[in-house]
Amino acid sequence: MSLKGIRTNDKHIKNLANIVEGNRSILYKKEDLLAYDCDGFTIYRHLPRAVVFPNNTEEVAKIVKYCHEHDLPFLARGAGTGLSGGAIPLNGEVIISLVKMKRLISVDFENRRAVVEPGFVNLKLTNSISDKGYYYAPDPSSQYCCTIGGNVGENAGGAHCLKYGVTTNHILGLEVVLPNGEVIEIGKDGIPDAPGYDLLGLLTGSEGTLGIVTKITVRILKNPEAKQTVLAYFDNVADGSQAVSDIISAGIVPAALEMMDQIAIEAVEAAAFPVGHPKDIEALLLIEVDGISAGIDEQIHQILEVCKRNHVREVKVAQSEEERARWWANRKTGFGAMGAISPDYLVQDGVIPRSKLPEVLNRIHEISREYGLRIANIFHAGDGNLHPLVLFDARKPGETEKALKAGSACLQACADAGGSITGEHGVGIEKREEMRFIFSDEEIAAQTDIREVFNPKNLLNAGKLFPTPGRCLEVKKEGKSVTAS
Amino acid sequence: MLQGELYTELKDVFPESQMEVKENEGHPLGNGGKVAVYPKTENEISHILQYANKNGKTVSIVGGGTKRGFGGLIDSADILLSLANLKGIVEHTVGDMTLTVKAGTPFQELQQYLEEHNQKISLDPAWPDYATIGGIIAANESGPKRLAYGSARDAVIGLRVVYPNGKVIRTGGKVVKNVAGYDMNKLFVGSMGTLGVLTEITLKLRPLPKYESNVLLSFTEGDFAEMRSFAAAFLDSQMEPVSLELISPSLAEKLTGEKFYTLAISFEDNESSVHYQESFLKSIQPPKTKMTILAQEKARKFWQSFYTISPNGRVSNQTGETEAVLKIGVVNLDVLKVIRESHLLQDTHNLLIEAHGGLGHGLCQIVLRGGSENVISAIQHLRNFVKQLNGYAVIKHLPFILRQKIEVWGENPPYFFLFKGIKTKIDPNNILNPKRFVGGI
Amino acid sequence: MGLNESDLIKEPACQTNSFSNYLWSDPPDENKWADCVHCGMCLESCPTYEITGQEQHSPRGRVHLIKSVAEGKLEVNEHFMDPVFACLDCRACTTACPADVDVGGLIEEARGQIRQAMPLKGWKKAVSHLFLHSLFPHHNRLYTLGNVLKLYQKSGMQTFVRKTGLINIIPQHLAEMEAIMPEVKKPVRKKYKHEKVIKAKGETKSTVAFLTGCVMDVMFSEINEATINVLTRNGNDVMIPQNQTCCGALHVHAGDREMGRKLAKQNIEAFQHAEKVIVNSAGCGCMLKEYPELFREDPVWRQKAETFSKKVEDISKYLYDTGYKRPIAEIKARVVYHDACHLAHGQGIRDEPRSLLLDIPGVEMVEMANADRCCGSAGIYNITNPEMAKEVLDSKMKNVPKEAEMIVMGNPGCMLQMAMGVQKNGRNQKIVHTVQLLDWAYQKEDRLKEGEECL
């Protein structure tokens, strides 16, 4: 862009501005940068050095090359809806915002694939192809606004990944700018199993530490012929959990199997999309099955039987698409809805073997009592992916720290049950230390070895994903001081 | 170094009773070892690798031996590490639908065990009676049902890997959804044993289908335009086939007795859903085609014989003919072109060629049998042909001598330096399956 | 099971106001931003984020900035002003927000602070003062201006100015506005000056008061006529309180909350005796309903404002709720409906006007993507932020289906802006108010009954 109007003494900002064409291509004033000091995870904040808005792969590559040559830390950002702080510029990074690269490049219905730029919003893909009866399966709750580039970075899941898998199962090809500015293309034309190590699999979910994705080939699916959604209310959590296990054991693979507990129900009912759930139940299940119309009634019948066997208070099948949509809107806006009952919340993302559900939920209730903080639970019960939401008020001294500890304790409970510390939100800044709950030092080193191959200078999104003793404490302090100053 | 010395040194770190000196090396498929070891535990593997790593000994890894002809430019490494004795189920939590198993367990044993629990591993690899789960994962195997169920990379949720330095690294976990750290499972799936020795594998399972059928649709006039438009229309419907595999006439003859291009369209669901989909197929059946429906046991029988059509590396080839297998990847519907081209090569190259490929996933397998010159020339022809389609061709089976003459993995990709970087980082002394993989890794 | 709020020890929220850089009274309300958890669900709903892709121009970004000033991290200066004033105040984010954060309210409060800290200068001040202080609140002056406009149009001066290129001396965006000025007719407040009540046609079912609006009555008096016709036809006696004034929305949007309060008080008193206050301008209706927000620090007036705002109703909702005669005559037209922000997002009125339109025989409604996306008018935003307004309008026009013959909506500001869009894009679509279309159907019905027209 023209440098007219850019008032700064930072030569790097001027040079970066020179790389990018068009208006509104760089931000560097404090007031503008402040909007980029965090993503969906708000506990740690730091100002970036600048935010650049490239229009195409070549510009991304030039920016990256510039940063690489001048040792400037940098990172990529999409819509900034990540929940673990992966896009927070902890080291005063140059943020490369990919929101201007938001084209749907091509759709090939016959071969069931689409090519998008990283800034393309998840739900827009489905909306663009739904008239032909196709959709894009990964559906994180933030799909209204999150970008597919971000989804690749985080290996995003969603309510329907129980049957259809997470992002990695739907990525066929990537164009990537490596941390030295070199551009590579993996999975040409979306052809599977390209010879060699599976770099597609490795890059997906690498939380923006191995490269910056600039073009993505995804698999698209045909809409299922039939879809039925069931809502079931349980008087106690144990019955609800047992129903989850029994549905799966019956040989049914639901498209989605979601659970909310009492506090979560209180929040969604107080927020923008209330359904009218009874307030005195301990658990509700939202179950969706899809597939061939001729076989679906049998599945629904089985599900209703299982619910009844587990003392369900009330169970109903959605009677219209409108009703179904309302149930899902209520569920999908669940996190944001916490704002209606609490000034702040911290969402955790542990995974446990499904059979441990009642035991771990009990432990979470104990943690809630121990820390004196309410914890709501909204989760993907079908695949054991829990989302304990720790409610707190950051304005009360010490409460943020308490919430962080309570969240960490929930993750410890998941790890103890043989599970994982994150199912879909990623490690980011938030769960760096908790990586130790499930991996030994050697196992963590095995992963950082891989990072070194791609990102030897560690300029790209440094300080994320892995615990680095000493260093991360420093960073935390830095983040705090910014918050307090 | 002499075999005897190696044997003596190994004895110090490993039980002698599980060792064997290989006298008559020079196996037609290569990938052997001077001393074979048969560890029963992960710990023993760790000791062997530590020894090898310290002393610069090369290690060749083998499971059931079905893929012995797949890659590799070394006739005989120092140590042949067989996982045949590292067998058995470690953990099966029925309610969680996950299974942890030792790498040397033959695939079919697992499926039989799981059947009692109405579950299965949703993979359909070749030679299931012999192929071990470790080998299947290391080669990222898949079959026609990949269309619905994905490949090995989609089924694996956790691994235990012994690194070349003897350290045991866990990747992934025991839960079906997990994004903690890098998705390291992916690194090892399909790595052909060049990065570590898989010892334990955790897989996610699926329920056994309540009913299944396989619909064979033969195109009696071999009209490709017809096949293409049928496939496109069927794929555009809301039916949910688990396979849509195009079978070349010569392979169809072997499997069904009739020499036509044939589509094997499988359904697995509850009975009413399967029958519904069969009648949908009938409703769009193109003229001049023949439809046969194989239900339940008959469908299973069909697939059983299907999985044994390719050469099996553990059985020596007595025919005197050269056998080769190609794995070809192209954009889905280009599979039609590849299968046709393969079929045409039979006459021009005087070979028996059995080809099949999935119209919904883009992978083909071509089995070639005949004179070695003709086989090589046909492979080169097909490789050039798929290059025009932006695809690739990997040689999955070829005698050792011929592997010296033709690049098994094709050209190196522009990002080969990343492969090299990964290999060097994990196996700096290059002891594991050297020269088995892409670009001589 | 589950821990209840009451089980926990309650601590008082600590006061963070001491760091605040908001120095004037009526600052942005802490409770409004406390609900925002920065989830980002608002991003895609925001027209200025769509255009810029920049988060300081997104709802959550603006909320974050507004909060940062209160926390003492930012000062009220021109860099802060830019994102706050670039907001269209379209409220789409309020609809999208899972926690119902009142972003619009925060923006208006922040603008109040900015205007006091940094008064306007230069031509912006002149324009703003002209419109907000000297014109809108003064019905007579507006009327006079209207007469000038009328003269300008009738005298052929308009043609003269356009043809001679005189128009080039007016800034471009104002010239574009000029091109689409509606033809000025006699305001209803003048016309019915001496009628205390305009009687219902037939039996009186209820009595309503009518806010004629300032600009509406001068520039769009036809629509006011139509509104009165439709109301009286459906059994309503209509009163037009003469001491009513401009609703103040434009002032509040511009940060002039003091003037807003002054106008609010005048209207509250003017409509004191009314049971129902009918509004046909979405922006005005929304403002009237939000009067209590202006009096957060004045309990007495707050109470009065609350009583008043409950009486306010948009014409489409009022008709829908109380029932109306389904017209018999056919209006053959393919229409699209544009949701005015302050109707859809501001008042949650979406289905009522649509159902009203569909009740007119012959009307065929065409789907429009993003029907509830702002057109860029946003009060006088198109005058103060012309570039952004233009881009927002371009984006809107891309979604207007070419096959539509009419674009129907319930807000005068949108009508001017959309007319400009139609003109600039070389379309020939007619811009119509919902109530106008209904009125035409009634009129046609009457003519049919009188036998003037054959079926």
Automatic annotation (TrEMBL), chain C:
Which GO terms of the molecular function aspect are on file?
4 iron, 4 sulfur cluster binding; glycolate dehydrogenase activity; metal ion binding
Q: Which domain of life is it from?
A: Bacteria
Q: Which UniProt keywords apply?
A: 4Fe-4S, Electron transport, Iron, Iron-sulfur, Metal-binding, Repeat, Transport
List, separated by semicolons, the cofactors it needs. [4Fe-4S] cluster
InterPro entries xref list: 4Fe4S_Fe-S-bd, 4Fe4S_Fe_S_CS, Cys_rich_dom, Glc_ox_4Fe-4S, Helical_ferredxn
EC number(s)? 1.1.99.14
State its role: Component of a complex that catalyzes the oxidation of glycolate to glyoxylate.
Protein name in the entry: Glycolate oxidase iron-sulfur subunit
Species name for this entry?
A: Aeribacillus pallidus
